[in-house]
Design a protein that fits this description.
There is one protein chain. It is built from twelve helices and twelve strands. The protein is of the alpha/beta class and 329 residues long. The protein has a domain of 68 residues. The strands form two sheets. Strands 6-7-8-3-9-10-12-11 form an eight-stranded mixed sheet, sandwiched between helices. A four-stranded antiparallel sheet has the order 2-1-4-5, covered by helices on one side. The longest helix has 18 residues. The radius of gyration is 20 Å and the shape is globular. The relative contact order is 0.14. It binds adenosine-5'-triphosphate and magnesium ion. Magnesium ion binds next to helix 1.
Length: 329
C-alpha cells in the first residue's frame, strides 16, 4: 500500500555519472522515487538500468569516480548529498543499512566474520550465534571464526542480511540479497527479511531481477530503464496492467509468468549506455509502439492509471517486441 505519511526517502531527478579516464557513463539520468515509512519497494530492470547506482547513491556509498551533477536525495528530510562526512557516517550508522550485491567483496578479507559482525554491530547488543542461526547458517560458532575467503557467496549474503537487519535500520537497501542462494534458502531469507521489516516498520528498497519475489514481498514496484524510473505503482496494479511498454516486455519475458507452454519472450535489442542527454525516449529503438514524438521529445513523468509513468503512449497499445526470441519452455 502506498504510504500517505511524509516519505522517509525522496530521490528527486538525480543524475549520476561514472568517470573512468576520458569516458563518462551516465548511470542515472533523472531518476526519481519516494518511499514512505514501512514501505517495501522492489526495483527491477535489466542489467545496467541503474539499480545498484540508485542504491549506492542513497547510502552515499558511490565509488570515488562517480559524481552527481543534478538532483537531490533526502532521507528523513536530510539531504544525503550535502551532508558533511560526520553526519553522513551517523546517518549510515543509525538510519540506514545496505546489503551489497557482492557481499564477499564488501567484507574485510583480513578480519574473521565474528570480528566484522561485532564491529558492524558495535552499538547493538546481539547474540551473534543466534543471529546466524536465524538465517539458517549451520554451525555458527565455527563460521564466526572463519575469514571471508573461507565462506561461500550464499553464506556471505546471509551474513550480510542478518547483520543489516540486526541494526534495525529505518531504511534497508538490499541489492540482490539472495541471488547466490538456492531456492529454499532464498525463500527463508526473504521471509525473514520482509517479516522483520514489516514488524519494525522498516522501509525496504529491494534491487532485484526476481520479479516473482518482488511480486510476493513488495507492495510497490519501480521499474528502471536507462537510469530512470519509468513506471512506479502498486505491485497489483503494475502486474495486472503494465502501462509502460518496457514493463509489459519485462513481464512477458519473466519465466515465472510464462507457465504451461505460454510463449516466453526475450526483449529484443540491448539496453542503452548513456553518455549525454538523449533527444527522446531511450526505449524507442526497442519499442514496438514508438511514434514520432518518442524519438524527439524526452518523456516527463505523468500519472496514468494511478501511477507514475514515463511514456508518451502508455497502456492501451499492444506491446509488439522487435525480433522476439522464443525460449525453450
Ligand atoms: P545489474 O542488474 O547488472 O546489477 P544495475 O541495474 O545495478 O545492473 P548499475 O550497476 O547501476 O546497473 O550500472 C548502471 C550503468 O553504470 C551501467 O552502464 C554500468 O556499466 C555503469 N557502471 C556501474 N558501476 C560503474 C563503475 N564503478 N564505473 C563505471 N561504470 C559503472
Ligand atoms: Mg546491480
Amino acid at each position: 500500500m502506498t504510504a500517505k505519511t511524509s516519505p522517509l526517502l525522496v530521490i528527486d531527478d538525480v543524475v549520476t555519472e561514472y568517470r573512468t579516464g576520458p569516458d563518462v557513463v551516465r548511470a542515472l539520468d533523472g531518476a526519481s522515487l519516494t518511499a514512505g515509512p514501512g514501505e517495501s519497494v522492489g526495483i527491477v530492470g535489466e542489467s545496467g538500468s541503474g539499480k545498484s547506482t540508485l542504491g549506492l547513491l542513497t547510502g552515499r556509498l558511490l565509488p570515488s569516480g562517480a559524481r552527481c551533477p543534478r538532483g537531490r536525495v533526502l532521507v528523513d528530510g536530510e539531504s544525503v548529498l550535502d551532508l558533511p562526512p560526520d553526519r553522513r557516517a551517523r546517518l549510515r550508522r543509525e538510519r540506514l543499512a545496505y546489503v551489497p550485491q557482492d557481499p564477499i567483496g564488501a567484507l574485510d578479507p583480513t578480519l574473521r566474520i565474528g570480528r566484522q559482525l561485532r564491529l558492524a554491530l558495535r552499538d547493538t547488543p546481539v547474540d551473534l550465534v543466534a543471529l546466524l542461526d536465524q538465517v539458517r547458517i549451520r554451525d555458527p560458532e565455527h563460521v564466526l571464526r572463519l575469514y571471508p575467503h573461507q565462506i561461500s557467496g550464499g553464506m556471505a549474503q546471509r551474513v550480510a542480511v542478518a547483520t543489516a537487519m540486526a541494526r534495525k535500520p529505518a531504511l534497508l537497501i538490499a541489492d540482490e540479497p539472495t541471488a547466490a542462494l538456492d531456492s529454499q534458502v532464498r525463500e527463508e531469507v526473504l521471509r525473514l527479511l520482509f517479516t522483520l521489516a514489516a514488524e519494525r516498520g522498516t522501509t525496504v528498497l529491494w534491487l532485484s531481477h526476481d520479479l516473482g519475489g518482488v511480486a510476493r514481498w513488495c507492495g510497490r514496484i519501480a521499474v528502471m530503464y536507462g537510469g530512470r524510473v519509468v513506471e512506479d505503482g502498486t505491485t497489483a496494479d503494475v502486474l495486472a496492467a503494465p502501462q509502460h511498454p518496457y514493463t509489459a516486455a519485462l513481464l512477458a519475458a519473466d519465466p515465472a509468468r510464462a507457465k504451461g507452454g505460454t510463449r516466453l519472450l526475450a526483449i529484443g535489442g540491448t539496453p542503452p549506455v548513456l553518455t549525454e542527454d538523449p533527444p527522446g525516449c531511450v526505449f524507442t529503438p526497442r519499442c514496438g509502439s514508438a511514434a514520432g514524438d518518442c524519438r524527439t521529445v524526452r518523456p516527463s513523468p505523468r500519472t496514468v492509471a494511478g501511477r507514475a509513468v514515463l511514456c508518451h503512449h502508455p497502456g492501451g497499445t499492444p506491446v509488439t517486441l522487435p525480433a522476439p526470441k522464443e525460449n525453450a519452455r
